[in-house]
TetR/AcrR family transcriptional regulator (Cellulomonas fimi), 238 residues
Amino acid sequence: MPRAAPRTARGNRTRARLVESAEQVFADVGYHDASIVKITEHAGVGLGTFYLYFDGKLEIFDEVVEDLNRRVRHAMAEATEAAPNRIEAERAGFRAFFRFTAEHPALYRIVRQAEFVSPAAFRMHYTRIVEGYIEGLTAARASGEIGDVDPTVAAWVLMGIGELVGMRWVRWAAAGAMDSDSEPGPADTMDVPPDVFDQVMGFIQRGLAAVALDRQDPQDGHHPHDTDDRSDDRTEQT
């Protein structure tokens, strides 16, 4: 059962220090090799102090996932609030996400552990991000900024793009785990290369285009692919 929130500012600081230390320990050694002793030593507090705030290792792990989720969502929301339209919001949001993952490598490491350690926390992380995405995409569709796409499908697709592009060009580049013929951004900047980012955004912009590519041709009221079929029919009749 989760503990009640601390009643004092000092208690809040101690709890936050424990969460921060747990994030570092889980990221460094993994959940199974982490221990409450390691967390408290890293935080500089006694073992008994831990149990004033958490029942055990799994509870603080869940709190770390929730804290990372809250921070990355805040970073993305803050970056997109002044965007003039949905496409620019995507651009700003992706930049903020990539920047956050560069500055907080624990995000990938811990969330991926959560799939096996705490499936509920794993689902919570992605679901909360998607919920905000769906809201923004729904509003953009209603205003005509994007095409007639399903906001839920689009939200999961966009999140998948961000997740894997960030892994490939931010985390792997930072770790030096790139193949010899690739050209990632400098490892000290840990940023998605400009040409890669532009290609990603071009793909997203086309995918969310206000005029979908598979809609009927406004000139003749037919689907573009119908032309070839009708030509074939006329040829056969001749």
